[in-house]
Every structure is written in structure tokens, then in C-alpha cells.
Amino acid sequence: MLLPRDRLAGGTWIGINELGLFACLTNLASAAEVAAEESRGQIPILALDQDDLATAMARVSDEVSRKTFAGFQLLLSDGRQTQVLEHDAGGVVLTESTTLVSVISNEHRLGELTIPGLDELEDRALGLEARLELLAELLLDRGERSGHRIFKKGGDYGTVSSSLMAIEPDQLESLIWRYAKGPPDEARYMDYGNLSRRLFEE
Question: Residue 179: what pLDDT?
Fold first, then answer.
């Protein structure tokens, strides 16, 4: 699997495995506070260690039923199907996305946040580069477009980095992963897609 690591807790919030399964995780602001046994950053790693989306969701559901984790939303996609698992106070809710574009945030469940301009991504004629440029612009929204601060500047929980990922169907070796090492209004996105070769190393 290919993913960044949190230097403090050792977990991650985004990643992909050698089968093309994509995972990302958000906190859940409305979740009840609990004394967590483990970092929720371990959840994407657990999911990406499975062979398919259904098995990954089942494995995560089992894990959160046996151990205490703070609330989160986990989005998994294999390019054909996208599902979101919401965990709060020991319970799980599994929702399947029925749209081409899926949006979650730490304050919004699937389908709750509308970002003006995002619907342009549903135009299948839109080229990949244009899609990435549009996403980069939308990720700088401080609430002017959607009423939700996607980009948070300053404070204790400001945006410290940003990722843009593109996976062509059945072409994982052509992975595009653009990563800004700092706030995306200051740091330039650099392409780390060449790291996809690590997915196929013995």
C-alpha cells in the first residue's frame, strides 16, 4: 500500500493499495467523546490491507465493534463502487454513494455538503488536468462558495497540507498523486505519482 504516515500516532488519513482500492478518513465533529484505545489513523491501513471493498468494510466494522475509537468517517472506493462507513460511539452506519462525485468532511456526512462548481467534475468530457485544476481551486474555499471552510488558515486545526489523487481505471502504474507539503495557498503541489512503483515491488 502507498500512504503518508502521521509522525506522532503512526496512522494515516489517505492511501491506496496495489489492487486500486482507495481509502480516506475524516474526523467526525459531532461524535461523542470517548477514551479511544487506538488511533483512528490505523483504520485506513486496516482497510487497505484487505483484498476488496466489501471485505475491507466488514473488517473495519468488526474492528470498531471490539475496540474503542474516536468518531470518524471512512470512504472507500475501488473505482466501481464507493461507500462511506460512519463510526460513532461503537455503532456503524454504512452508506453507498449513488453519485459520480462523493463529498464528506469532518462536519458533513455523505450528501450533506454542496460545493458550487464541483458538479463540473461530472462532465465526462472534462480532461484530467482540468479536473485536478478545478479541485485545487475548490480546496482553497474558505467558506465563500459552500459556507464550509474547506481550507482553514491559522488556529489549532488549520490546513497543513493537501493531496490531489487521480487513478485511471486499470492503470494503477499511471497514478497521479500531487501533494502540497504546506498550506496549498503557499506550497506548490508536487507530483509523487512515481511512488506507485512501490505498489508492485516484491
Answer: 94
Mean pLDDT of 177-196: 92
Contact in structure between 89 and 31 (CB atoms under 8 Å): yes
* Cα end-to-end span (Å), the chain: 12
CATH 3.60.60.10 boundaries in the chain: 1-108
Taking the C-alpha atoms of residue 108 and residue 95, their distance in angstroms, rounded to an integer, is 13
Residue type, 192: Y
The predicted model gives 169-181 an average pLDDT of: 86
Give the span between the Cα atoms of 195 and 103, in whole angstroms.
Answer: 26
Q: How many residues does the chain have?
A: 202
Res 97: pLDDT? 95
- Alpha carbon distance 22, 47 (integer Å): 9
Identify the band that residue 46 occupies on the pLDDT scale cut at 50, 70 and 90. very high
Identify the pLDDT of residue 56. Answer: 97
In order of 48, 113, 183, the CA distances from 140 in angstroms are: 28, 16, 9
Read off the pLDDT of each residue in 38-42 and give the average, rounded to a whole number: 89
Compute the 3-state secondary structure of the chain and give helix, strand, coil in percent, each to the nearest 5: 25, 20, 55
Say if residues 169 and 79 touch (Cβ distance below 8 Å).
Answer: yes
Q: Which CATH code for domain 1-108?
A: 3.60.60.10
